[in-house]
């Protein structure tokens, strides 16, 4: 039976969560369902959704918007007039405003989709939202579920949380054209890193890594893809440490495959992740991974596809890079194993079918 879905995500910039919301909206529309998006004016998600002819409603929210009855009634009217069966909520403010207004409108399925491996404060408002407002919580990894339950079942019963990993359209990714951004040199190893230049992504860690690799006599180059609030700081430190010759900042990339296919190894120094889309794409590009042993990384990377190291341990992180530099055959075999692992476990058609089934009201 066809249903009406609303994806409620007021993040301004583009990231993994926004990609998930758009991918799911497009998939559900392809299956014949009605879909719509609620986001902030000027948000990248809204702009991309409109280009795909998805109905978009814009609303300005902040953390106190839940106290504004006009905002809540406006949202409730949107849900009612569009006969929404399921709303999927993203941020905490989305959960508060969208969840309560959806409940006011009688929406059958109110799903909080949490993609960040961060604990949730066990406040009264959160207990009320998790226990009385949302009908289900969807996470993209066991690590994210564990973070929600860090205080046990006092916040929410574990049975209310469903784990379904992110999926990727493997055929589309593999067939996608790309442009080499930095010609590979046979004598050096190209190290790629991609993501928002924010504190969570921890790109500053790569600067002492570069210094140690130079001290060890390893010829290398870094390709850094992404934009964010840390960009000026990173470039300033790179200049200060006289590392401009090995750091190449490529900015925001519409096609991440440009960077991935220009690299020999993919690095992920993030302090936490919900589910690393970029790891999956790097593996599909047949790159071995070096990442921190945090969050869900161990659910995506195994010993045949990459290395997990203690967080912020420069020496051990460098050890793995040096190993991959000195063993190009192992680099190739790990990359191939990574691609096979993704094909087997994260094909979008299988994942999205599971999510569709989960999102359709059962009552």
Summarize the structure.
The chain is built from 15 helices and 13 strands. It is an alpha/beta fold and 363 residues long. It has 2 domains: 4-167 and 347-359, Rossmann fold (3-Layer(aba) Sandwich); 171-345, Glycogen Phosphorylase B (Rossmann fold), CATH 3.40.50.
Question: What gyration radius follows from the Cα positions, in whole Å?
Answer: 21 Å
Uncertain residue segments: none
The number of distinct helices, counting runs of at least 4 residues, comes to 15
* Main structural class: alpha/beta
Mean pLDDT metric: 94
- Named at the architecture level, the CATH assignment of the largest domain is 3-Layer(aba) Sandwich
Strand order of the largest sheet: 3-2-1-4-5-6-7
Oligomer: single chain
What pattern of helices and strands is seen along the backbone?
A: EHEHEHEHEHEHEHEHEHEHEHEHEHHH
Helix content: 40-55%
Strand content: 15-25%
Backbone shape: elongated
Distance between the termini: 13 Å
Number of domains: 2
Biggest β-sheet description = 7 strands, parallel
**Count of individual beta strands:** 13
Q: What descriptors fit this protein?
A:
alpha/beta, Rossmann fold, 17% strand, elongated, 2 domains, 363 residues, 42% helix, 13 strands, seven-stranded parallel β-sheet
Task: Explain the overall architecture.
The chain has helices at residues 16-30, 44-51, 69-81, 92-104, 124-133, 142-148, 170-175, 206-215, 231-240, 257-260, 277-284, 297-300, 314-326, 328-345, 348-359, and strands at residues 4-8, 34-39, 55-58, 86-89, 109-114, 136-139, 161-163, 189-194, 220-225, 247-251, 265-268, 289-292, 306-309. It has 2 domains: 4-167 and 347-359, 3-Layer(aba) Sandwich (Rossmann fold); 171-345, Rossmann fold. It is 42% helix and 17% strand. The longest helix is centred in the last third of the chain and has 18 residues, at 328-345. The radius of gyration is 21 Å and the shape is elongated. The protein is α/β, with parallel strands linked by helices. It has a 7-stranded parallel sheet, with helices on both faces. Strands 10-9-8-11-12-13 form a 6-stranded parallel sheet, sandwiched between helices. Strand 8, helix 8 and strand 9 (220-225) form a beta-alpha-beta unit. Helix 1 packs parallel to helix 2. It has 15 helices and 13 strands.
């Amino acid at each position: 039976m066809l249903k009406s879905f609303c994806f409620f995500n007021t993040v301004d910039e583009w990231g993994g969560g926004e990609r998930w919301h758009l991918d799911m909206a497009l998939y559900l529309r392809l299956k014949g369902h009605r879909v719509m998006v609620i986001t902030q004016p000027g948000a990248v998600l809204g702009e991309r959704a409109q280009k795909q002819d998805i109905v978009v409603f814009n609303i300005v929210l902040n953390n106190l918007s839940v106290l504004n009855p006009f905002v809540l009634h406006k949202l409730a009217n949107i849900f009612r007039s569009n006969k929404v069966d399921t709303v999927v909520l993203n941020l905490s403010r989305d959960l508060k405003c969208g969840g309560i207004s959806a409940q006011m409108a009688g929406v059958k399925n109110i799903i909080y989709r949490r993609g960040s491996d961060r604990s949730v404060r066990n406040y009264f408002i959160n207990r009320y939202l998790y226990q009385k407002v949302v009908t289900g919580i969807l996470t993209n990894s066991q690590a994210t579920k564990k973070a929600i339950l860090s205080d046990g079942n006092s916040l929410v019963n574990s049975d209310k949380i469903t784990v379904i990993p992110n999926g990727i359209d493997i055929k589309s990714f593999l067939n996608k054209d790309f442009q080499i951004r930095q010609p590979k040199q046979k004598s050096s190893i190209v190290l790629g890193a991609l993501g928002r230049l924010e504190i969570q992504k921890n790109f500053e860690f790569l600067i002492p890594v570069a210094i140690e690799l130079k001290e060890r006599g390893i010829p290398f180059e870094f390709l850094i893809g992404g934009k964010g609030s840390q960009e000026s700081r990173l470039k300033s430190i790179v200049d200060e440490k006289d590392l401009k010759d090995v750091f190449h900042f490529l900015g925001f990339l519409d096609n991440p495959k440009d960077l991935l296919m220009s690299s020999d190894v993919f690095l992920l120094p993030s302090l936490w992740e919900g589910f690393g889309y970029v790891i999956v794409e790097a593996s599909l590009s047949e790159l071995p991974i070096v990442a921190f042993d945090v969050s869900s990384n161990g659910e995506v990377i195994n010993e045949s596809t990459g290395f997990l190291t203690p967080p912020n341990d420069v020496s051990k992180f460098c050890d793995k890079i040096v190993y991959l530099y000195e063993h190009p055959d192992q680099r190739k075999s790990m990359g191939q194993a990574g691609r096979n692992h993704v094909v087997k476990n994260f094909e979008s058609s299988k994942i999205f079918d599971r999510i569709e089934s989960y999102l359709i009201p059962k009552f």
